[in-house]
Amino acid sequence: MSISNKPDELIYSFAPIANLECKILILGTVPGKESLRQNAYYAHPQNGFWKIIFQLHHIPYSTNINARNSVLLQNRIALWDVLKVCRRKSSLDSHIRDEVPNDLQKFLHQHPNIQAIFFNGKSAATYFKKYFPDIGLPTYVLPSTSPANAIRMEQKVAAWEILKTF
Question: Which one is catalytic: 39, 47, 66, 75?
Fold first, then answer.
């Protein structure tokens, strides 16, 4: 997929990282430009997502995509985005428009062991509530791992500790 700075650029989400043993689902909004360029979730080097996941599970940090995905699945964590497609002129969620949600109801039906949904930031939660107000699972809004979220990494890690309770 080519990436441009056109205001009407269509952005598509990736396929979910999941298996039938996953107990929790983490949802972002839609991939940023660096993630799209690298064809990988949370690929921007300043995004704290992977550092947090590795730290929570006491695993040495890796930039290898397969290692990252394995850490999620070994810890029964599924990862996806609320939005299937949208228009966006930058990586900022505030620039999202003309969004279409992913089929999360179908996903949850196909992954019956999911016990809770966690949002990587308020925007993901807002879009989720807009399209799926009565999903029937507990939901938790976590601080965004984006570098645009100015809270300290220690605070983010502390908030994300809740993942370990599932």
Answer: 47
